Fold each of these.
Amino acid sequence: MTVASDAALLLDHLDSIGVHGEVRVEKGWDHMGANLADAALQHRQDYEKVVRKRARALKEAWPDAKTTSGFLECLATDDLAAVIDWRGPDRLQQIKDMAAVLKDHQVEEAGDLREALEDPARRHGLRAALDAVRYVGPKTLDYFDILAGLSIGVAVDSRLLTITEAAGITSSGYDYVASAIRAAADTRGWRHGDLDAALWAYVGDRPAKPKGMRRRAVGSC
């Protein structure tokens, strides 16, 4: 099978279940602290019940964390774990480490994040630096595209794999599945991120893990 043929399989399946990607979907926050919390906590969590409310709580508690520098200053004087009601040290450290990377790459505000990811030269360096952070994997890297509002954002997780498997796509490799979803969107003239959102919403927050799903590494997301 090829990406093109699997994209056709996916579109046939989407037509059969009534899923389309023509509705424009905007995600992300105008607050870098909230974006960082969202990116770190989304792995295998119920978005509405777990992630969104914590990102919102951080935004409300730390208005100065709208910028990356402001977020780092808040970290130095307040307790992030208490603000977002999260005790797991791994994700808390991931948030801090990603903030340091954004600071190093002159990403201060949400608009800066979008500009950095749209610039091919800056994009490569920023993604490479984020990829070096523990617990950051390909999904989190692509999830930053979604948070930045880029049309290319496709973050493959178990929700999307549930649909691609049902469509008859046998590969569960991250890059391959992402390419098939993007090709399907291109065929219909949809933005990649809008189709990603439609697939994610269709499956919901509690999908079953599809057979054959392969992860990049234990703990990566």
Note: Residues 68 and 103 are 6 Å apart (CA to CA).
Amino acid sequence: MLVGTALMAAALTACGGGSGSGSSGSGPGGAEMKKKPDMAISVNLTGDQAKPGEPVKVSLAEGKLSQVKVSDGKGGELPGKISDDGRTWTSERNASPGTDYKVEAHNTDSQSASAQFKTVAADKVNKVTINPGKGSTVGIAQPISIVFDNPVKDKAEVEKHLLVTTSNNTEGSWGWFKDYTGNDRVDWRPKDYWKSGTDVKVEMNLNGVDSGQGGGMFVKDYNTEFKIGKDRRLQVDLNTHRMTVTEDGQAVRTIPVSAGTPGGKKASWSGKMVLMTKEGTIRMDSQTVGLGDSYDKMVDYSMRVTWSGMYIHAAPWNTGSFGRANTSSGCVGMSDSDAKELFAEAQVGDLVEVTGEGSKGKAEIGNGYGEWNLPWDEWKAKSALNGTPRNG
């Protein structure tokens, strides 16, 4: 019986391959046991010249993944999901340009593996200008507006990474067009005007997104959040030469005004617009808006309505026309006292609506915020995602 045991031990030792086979520990009778091999993973991005702008994919040859972590050198992580069969993990975000990444993977057998790679820097970087600014309070007509430094050819891909969240599930849609500068621009407007008190959060998860040929890649995320203030509307009637100011649906003030001279370049724009900025005392030079040497003066309580130079402001030199005639060079003028009170009350984002005869029509969408002049279905059609709202 002792002889049989010895033979069995010898056989087990022979099968184990000896210490040179990577064995660890001894089994019964002193037999060497085989060490369980480490798990093996493959990563679609490798080396120090990996291509950015695509998701990271981690694959497992055998077994099932239990956890995968892909982190950069700054403490950030790429979120991702394991496939139903447990064999692959894919990041929900693209790898960013010029970034070192570390991959740490674990399987259901408590084994682990790691890998590293570095993406090349972007040849060209795209950036954005965002409005409204973070922490601001704006009026009920203010859209979310993003203007891009470089062209955006792949608008659908960029739009997929833009998310609007509101405190009351406001319905809205993105729409693409050209800004007054000629740059690509995408705005988000609600189906109807905002409700006062709405909290809005905008997440632009653009890091690692390619804007397409000639536009470059984004190398950071952007975000903003703001609140909707009082429902204030400035309604200018070109026929009666008066502005009616309403707050929460009630008329609170009627102001005698003089708008643009009917006919030609000095007429006012009409339609639905938005109070863009409150600039205060500024120099207005007619040569900058193509009106020759008509005027060059300092103007108080100036509030911009279009990029092309239509303002609401004090115009004491035109007192005789207030409430009687439209004789300005395109702006809506009023007395110093009326302008001062309105300037103090008004907020960026208030609706400005001009009706009546003698205007030069509606301004282009990008000449300020002209999207409210479009029916809802027409606005939704400007989305690169076929009008599918991205809001919550």
Note: DSSP finds four helices and 25 strands in the chain.
Amino acid sequence: MTLYHKGGEEQVEAAVAPQRAKGIRVELRSAPYNRSELREAAARLMGRSLTIDGQLTSVHSAGARSDGSGLVVEGEPLRANDTNSGNGQARTADPAVPWTGTVTGAPAPLESREHDAPLHSGGMLLRQRYKGGPICTSGFVVTWPQRGLDYLMTAAHCGGFLHNYTIWSGQPIYRQSQQLLNVNRAAHSFVGEYLCASGSLSGEVCKLKVAEGKHFTRYKEFSTGTEVYTLKNTGGGFTAMKGDSGGPVFSRNVDGSVVARGLISAGVVGAKTETCSNPAANNSPVECYRHIYVTDVPDVLNQHLGMRIAN
């Protein structure tokens, strides 16, 4: 294992000592920037104009390299009449740290009426069990300011939606080869490891490699940035389609349980739009994606004191 750090040699040595005592080989290397510096630099780039490969783009993703040497940036081409500020003038970025960039389309959220969405909306399909159980529809999202809580409103007879501390793996909906797996904890992911995703429409897909750079990504539907990482499909076929949003991303333990790593967030837009068959809509065509953006579960849990994976 190689660990990059900036300063704090004594603290870093103390932190890795228990791992070395277990026989794990840990190599320490100095980095020019720390995680906080690169996070701040990435956040400042979001929604700004930047020239990448000679093309003016609007930055939709930016994140730190795993070796602390700079940023990985992605931008969507700007058209002649595009602006990204209220005064009609493009806000040109001047990155304060070294960076490399790629021209690519903005992320495509994988929401749909049939399944989970980044923000729940009325009119969404609700099911109590995988199949055979009652089917209802969501009504309105309501808030309780005094408690700081939001709720999803629906009909009274649709209440009692139970949950298990498990996830479905195997084939997608309406198929037979499926299994329930226990979830025992959550953990961050690191560049280079391989994970699995299990969207309800696409089913379980593995051989997904965590790509370089953890990105802040700015969806067209929202003005704020979300921190995600990218999974590249190193096998065959597609990873997710519209309707898989919110599905689990995980790694497996030797005992058959899984570790929660992330949630399917959006699709990485390629040079052309690809289509798959949507099993929730009579196999009608739907946009699908080979590579995906993933929201990190531990990052979300850490934002809410005391929240954890239940098991």
Note: The helical segments are 9-21, 35-45, 297-302.
